[in-house]
Design goal:
With 199 residues, this protein is of the alpha/beta class. The protein has a domain of 136 residues: Rossmann fold (3-Layer(aba) Sandwich), CATH 3.40.50. It is built from three helices and ten strands. Helix 2 links the parallel strand 2 and strand 3. Helix 1 packs across helix 2. The structure holds inosinic acid. The site of inosinic acid has 18 residues, from strand 3, strand 5 and helix 3. Inosinic acid (IMP) binds next to strand 3, strand 5 and helix 3.
Amino acid sequence: MTKKRATPSSKNTAGLRPEESVRVLITDARVKARLKQLAREIRRDFPTEPLHLISVLKGSVFFLTDLARELGGEVSFDFLSVSSYGHGTDSTGEVKLIKDLDVSIEGKTVIVVEDILDTGLTLKYLLRFFEEKKPKHLRVVVLLDKVERRIADVRADYTGFVIPNEFVVGYGLDFDERYRNLPDVCVLQFASRGKAKSA
Ligand code: IMP
């Protein structure tokens, strides 16, 4: 008997609205495999250092928790929140601090854990903000990088996947707070408007 192939849609898509659809870009299995490699790269650079992971809420939460479990050694977390997007898929270009860090990062080896690098404006703001607080080392790991969208002159030290200029949801990433719980990274598409564009 021939085995049925998996459909190219993400699991748990029951909450989809009629005008919206998702197409899997990166499966959860590929994400998990890449995280193991990223963790190895980071630990190669900092084999024995305690690592202080800082996640930008809320899109990076799954990324941080999965990555942290691959890192081994001494790891601590903190979270901050900024707003760079309003509703929908378009950037306002503004970055505002909504929730500050809970503990000082002075003298610590800090790894900023970001879900996606788009224009780079958020990361540029964050790096300036963190550098003023005098960490021992400051590195950035991003799961996804839309290289062609970059405006600010910033780059990640560790990158999961370079992706095309499409609006993605799932694995923590949202569209108006929805779709974060999709296990795969998916492209969001609108039936009436064609592709959702982040440009
Ligand atoms: P940047 O400042 O333009 O680099 O944007 C960074 C933030 O915008 C990310 O942390 C996300 O919250 C959001 N963002 C950018 N592109 C996407 C996307 O394709 N899907 C969901 N959120 C996105």
